[in-house]
Amino acid sequence: MKELKDLNDRIVNCDRCPRLLEYIRNVAHTKVRRFRDWEYWGKPLPGFGDPNPKLLIVGLAPAAHGGNRTGRMFTGDSSGNWLARALYETRFANKPISESRDDGLELEEAYITAVVRCAPPQNKPTAQEIKNCNPYLTEEIRLFKRLRVILCLGSIALKGTLMALKSLYPSAELKGIKFGHGLLYRPRGVPYVLMTSYHPSRQNTQTRRLTWEEWLKVFRKARELVEAL
User: Fold this and answer.
1) Could you say which of 3, 33, 167, 225 has the lowest number of CB atoms within 10 Å?
2) Domain extent listing, the chain
3) Are the CB atoms for 181 and 208 separated by under 8 Å?
4) How far is residue 168's CA from residue 141's CA, in Å, rounded to a whole number?
């Protein structure tokens, strides 16, 4: 899809957030010891997946030594492997791991994106940085004509998604939509089902705030909705 390629090219060359650009370039230069032999991506990160998806998965931002290193969303860290495994087990992916841009992972009917395209320091983008990046998410949603389900991983992902939907559907009824794990909304005036889940970060998975069974249940529900809608 030419429009999506053009969008992704603009994302990679984006310079709207100087603080974030400086941070990801510094991370790419200094690296960490375990990845010292990698050539880091170190640029804003476009989405990844089926260019005509029914399921859109929205995260917070690339990880400093995950996506910012590998050049692909949710790739190269434990969160990426949790996501890839769940997508594989629910028939959205052809393999259960996400290690590098050339590992052969392919998605079917699913696309992975984020509300912020550069890894933020301490995983905390500013409100202005979220606002700066939001037109990219808005445009992705607009381009995906078969889209039926939007899954938001974390409260900031939900906030950014609601911002994008308000831009696309000004008269939509979005008040009262709050974050929580495993919640589902069908807002009036929006042609998508919204789902929310905890992010599969180590902070959530190692503390068992998010268990594998609870995580997989979210994707089984997403598969059910994709097939029903």
Assistant:
1) 33
2) 2-228
3) no
4) 9
